[in-house]
Amino acid sequence: MTPATRPLVAVVGGGIAGLAAAWELVGASGGAGEGAGDRLTPDVVVIEAEGRLGGKLQSMPFAGRTVDLGADAFLARRPEATRLVDELGASDDLVGVGTSGTSLLAGGALRPLPDGLVLGIPTRWWALARSGVLSRREWLRMGYDLVAPRAAGPRTTTDRAVGDLVAGRLGRGVVDRLVDPLVGGIHAGGVDTLSAAATFPALLEAWHQPGSLVRRLDPRRTAAVSPPSPPAGAGSDRPAPVFWSLAGGTASLVGRLEQGLRAAGATFRLGTRVRALSRTASGWTIELDPAEDDERYLPADGVVLATPARTTAALLGRHAPRSARILAAVEHASVAVVTVSLPSSAWLAPRTGTGFLVPRREAIRGRPYLVTGCTYLSDKWPLLARDGDVLVRLSVGRLGDRRHEELDDDELTTAVLAELGTIVPLSSGAIATSVTRWAGAFPQYAVGHLERMATIDGEIADLPGLALAGATYRGVGIPACIGTGREAAAAVRRDLARSHPGLPRSDRSRQSEVGRP
Ligand SMILES: Cc1cc2nc3c(=O)[nH]c(=O)nc-3n(C[C@H](O)[C@H](O)[C@H](O)COP(=O)(O)OP(=O)(O)OC[C@H]3O[C@@H](n4cnc5c(N)ncnc54)[C@H](O)[C@@H]3O)c2cc1C
Q1: What residue's CA is closest to ligand 1, atom 5?
Q2: Total domain count for the chain?
Q3: Residue 237 lies in a domain
Q4: Which pLDDT does position 46 carry in this prediction?
Q5: Which residue of 3, 141, 422, 426 has the fewest CB atoms within a 10 Å radius of its CB?
Q6: Which residues constitute the domain of residue 184?
Q7: Burial letters for 223-246: b for 16+ Cβ neighbours within 10 Å, e otherwise?
Q8: For 78-112, how does the pLDDT look when each residue is reduced to its tens digit (9 = 90+)?
Q9: How many of the other CB atoms lie within 10 Å of CB of 427?
């Protein structure tokens, strides 16, 4: 490579983590951040196996609207997604959730979740008692936490399963009825294996203190759960919602990013799978399938792997064997969503909040429900509301429950609508339905996850120009994925700055233009 040539970074995987990495690499953030003016701005190519960008962010036209089929919201409390939206000049398009509250199926009936839950842990005794989600015995067992003297959990315990910690202090009822549906639901997993350090660090911290776990987690007594702050441009006269989406749906973030990236000079190879990665004296060679213009091998100075764990494991192979083994062993849960339009008149009971969750232990005719949750899409997102119908999304599948995979789309739709009909009275069938399957979508953060991720970090740090991003590492939510993408990009750029000391640095004025396409 001649000294004047800009280095090339290949971002493998065009999901939200990969796109965020590409955005950071092209320097399109308008110069935000430390040392922005000194950044080396490489050429960037995003290589995506599918014929579309976005990964688990996807939408489709349905019943006259654009409906998200994967992620439909992002958490407002974390700054990464709202910052990105701001950089894309799209803050005015943020839309907040139109209603609040969620219900829980308990003993076959829907009951609103009580106020004061911290990721499923109740902190208000009387609100919990009134909600009826726990039996009297379960509620009394929980009260033990207040009165029984508790020693602090040993500091030497760096991680435990969320379910273990909660069951020991508050009883199994709280785990099965509340914490599993809420924390497990985020990962489509189960709290008996999910790592507290990775998924609920405030719980582990509280467990390390003496006394009542509930008191330690109570937001009225601690700053454990800080209130969401409104992002720039979103108007500050009303309290910010807990979740945001965008006009056009959460997946419209993908199109906005693509537009900004193209304006900044990034290129895309869609429908191209990366088969292998080899190290060269000056960087990396990427094997593409299919080859483009007969070129099967693409030389790159840097690589961000923003692919799911198993693909990343296969690509890392002999370069980082310990990381590859760790990643290959990450379990994944498969889910599907059934999107349904029902006549408004068919729904014979009032709907409250954004929907309901179905705990694992709820059963219908002696078998656990297929449905794990229901989102009232047209109540949650006012832009989706139309006279005449109600849009809902029924979710199925979680770790240990793959029954949906044995049903074809028609059978699955019939089964979930039949279950819905036992939970809420419905007077007629659906106007339109659609099934979307997400195989192996949710990586499971088993106990010890963060330590394993630290091992990966250590091994990858010895491979200059390579970095990893995505839902596998430090959070499955959109903001966390964006965060890992940007961090991976920054790490690759630092390596390139060392290996290309003579190259010119980025130009802030050019960045500002592309940051506001
Ligand atoms: C149904 C559902 C609902 C969800 N709801 C929410 C929500 O409301 N809020 C929220 O914050 N999160 C939600 N999530 C989680 C969130 O959407 C994901 O964790 C996140 O989008 C993952 O992004 P990613 O970039 O890490 O991975 P992905 O989106 O999986 O992207 C990885 C990309 O890599 C590509 N790829 C794979 N192999 C190769 C290869 N060899 N070569 C090239 N490309 C390759 C894939 O095709 C894919 O596009 C939801 C997820 C699902 C499935």
Answers
A1: 71
A2: 3
A3: no
A4: 98
A5: 3
A6: 115-217
A7: ebeeebebbeebeeeeebbebbbb
A8: 999 999 999 999 999 999 999 989 999 999 999 99
A9: 11
**C-alpha distance across the termini of the chain, in Å:** 31
Give residue 79's identity as a one-letter amino acid code.
P
Answer whether residue 233 shows pLDDT above 70.
Answer: no
Mark whether 341 and 431 lie in a shared domain.
yes
pLDDT of residue 395: 98
Ligand 1 touching residue 316 (CB < 6 A): no
Of 39-43, 458-462, 493-497, which gets the smallest average pLDDT? 39-43
> What are the CA-CA distances from residue 40 to residues 8, 266, 463, 490 (Å)?
11, 15, 19, 10
One domain, residues 424 and 454? no
Give 473's strand partners: none
96 lines ligand 1 (CB under 6 A): no
Q: Is the peptide bond before 479 cis (omega within 30 degrees of 0)?
A: no
Give the whole-number percent of the chain exceeding pLDDT 70.
90
Give the position, in ligand 1's atom list, of the atom nearest the Cα of 471.
26
Asked if residue 465 belongs to a domain, the reply is yes
Decide: 26 and 494 in contact? Cβ < 8 Å.
no
Q: Is the pTM of this model over 0.85?
A: yes
Cα–Cα distance, 214 to 145 (Å, whole number) = 7
Note the residue count of the chain: 517
Say whether both 483 and 390 belong to one domain: no
**Could you tell me the CATH number of the domain that includes residue 387?**
3.90.660.20
What's the gap in Å between 478 CA and the centre of ligand 1? 9
Q: Is 346 in the same domain as 317? A: no
Phi then psi for residue 380, to 5 deg, are: -65, -40
